Amino acid sequence: MSWKDYINSGLLELYVAGTLSAQEMERIRALEKEHPELAAEIDKIQQAAMRYARQSAGDFTLPELDESAFETPSDSLQNDPTDHVLQLNNDKNRRWLSIAAAVLLLFASGIAIYMYVQVSNLKRELVEIKTERLLLDSVLAGQLAANDSLLHGLNQMQRQYAEVQEHINSASTQKILLKGLDIDSAAEALVFWNEKTQKVYVSASNLPAVDQQHQYQLWALVDGKPIDAGVFINSNNLQVAKSIARADAFAVTLEPKGGSETPTLEKLYVLGEVAKGNS
User: Fold this and answer.
1) Average pLDDT, stretch 68-77?
2) Which position has the higher pLDDT, 79 or 197?
3) Dihedral (C-alpha) 62, 63, 64, 69: value to the nearest 10 degrees?
4) Considering only CA atoms, which of 217, 221, 222, 164 is closest in space to residue 194?
5) Distance (Å, whole) CA 265 – CA 142
6) What is the mean pLDDT of residues 232-251?
7) pLDDT of residue 102
8) How many angstroms separate the Cα of 198 from the Cα of each of 162, 216, 277?
9) At 48, which helix (H) or strand (E)?
10) Which of 10, 73, 231, 233 would be 259's cystine partner, CB 3.0–4.6 Å?
């Protein structure tokens, strides 16, 4: 432990009170000589302890003593010489009383210093508890916010799933299988189109993998003219495409990333016609 660590450790109060082990007392004493900042902190604690001691002890004064209580009348000895009375010198009495008072004051000061150390430690522990409480409150608030965000995300996913299910199961929705052409006869894609709502979902059920510079693009064919229905990723999951009001057929081409204004016919992978009477 460095000298800086001692300042906030609570050991300096115990050092001032003299309740540490001899080894620890010697170590702090050596550090106190080497580091003026540590010595100043120890002096501050000592001053605070002494103030606390004075406040705890109050105004301590010796009671007035009747000097006659320590004297034996001379005529008493004359009248009864056999009565052996021990006479004490008044100055010696005062000195012993002063020593006793000093011992009592020192004892009271020691108790006061000990109480000061305990109060200081309790205050430090209280600050640590409050700090930990603030940290826990902060973590709890963050966790609650994360839970709220997660719950919101789950609710949104449930709503989207319900919308997809409603779209697929609707009697107005056509399931259109787009089959592979000469470029890849094994390729396939699925389109779910609802003419009433104009919503379109697409699934790349079996399209070749592509590099990062290209994307698949869905087209709706109306009277032989292509209408952009948006790009999508190569995934079996249903993906929302652009709304289409009319369609005779749907097709998928491979285009540069971001899509094209017109389809690249050399990269036409799949094509599927809309059932007659539904377009």
Assistant:
1) 47
2) 197
3) -110
4) 164
5) 52
6) 92
7) 60
8) 17, 21, 16
9) helix 36-57
10) 231
